Amino acid sequence: MACGGFAFWGNYSFPSIPALGIQGELGFLFNNGTEITAESKTTGASIKVTDKLSYTTLELPILMTYTVNKGGFFEFIPHGGFYLSFPIGKCKQEIDTEVKAFGSSGKDSETTKDKIDSSVIVGMAIGTDFAFNFSKTSALMLNMRYMYDFNELKVDGDEIARRSAFLFSAGYRYTLH
Q: What's residue 2's pLDDT?
């Protein structure tokens, strides 16, 4: 599943090692989730069930960064750390069922919005930024990140999903002096 969102972040570089930094972020991701498909085939019949979950989160990562070629035209910035993720609103679940049996077929869809019981999800993130500096204060940023939740999302009392996702993003960096 594809998710969308936006984030704001700040990075503090240590005076003694300017390439090393701490990056705090505030992000908003919508359409988090997963899609699970199961199929069963027997003589003359087949059943296919697709279960899609989607939900919205407020993200608070704290990452350690290390900048290679700091101040050059191209910067490579690996980063890693932990995050807190706060689910917002309800979890949308779409279940599509397709049955083919003995020459006939049928489809059924059901959509529900269920209460999210998880108040906070803890996880880790690791990735890298690529910065193309246009001047001392502005840069085009490209980001790749892998996120993994340590605890599962709870919906209506049941633990139903653990997020494990790759994120790709682009942005603009403005440096304050």
A: 66
Of 58, 56, 66, 57, the closest CA to residue 25 belongs to 58
Looking from the CA of 122 toward its CB, the CA atoms found within 13 Å total 2
Q: What is the pTM of this model?
A: 0.81
Q: Which residues, 6 or more positions from 165, have their beta carbon under 8 angstroms from its beta carbon?
A: 3, 32, 146, 147
pLDDT for 58-97, tens place per residue? 999 999 999 999 989 999 999 999 999 999 989 898 889 9
> In which band, very low, low, confident or very high, does the pLDDT at 156 lie, cut at 50, 70 and 90?
confident
Query: What is residue 6's predicted lDDT score, i.e. its pLDDT?
Result: 78
CB atoms within 10 A of CB 163: 20
* Contact yes or no for 141/76 (Cβ under 8 A): no
> For residues 57 and 42, what is the distance between their CA atoms, to the nearest angstrom?
40
What would the 3-class secondary structure string for the chain be? Answer: CCCEEEEEEEEEECCCCCCEEEEEEEEEEEEEEEEEEEEEEECCEEEEEEEEEEEEEEEEEEEEEECECCCCCEEEEEEEEEEEEEEEEEEEEEEEEEEEECCEEEEEEEEEEEEECCCCEEEEEEEEEEEEECCCCEEEEEEEEEEEECCCEEECCEEEECCEEEEEEEEEEECCC
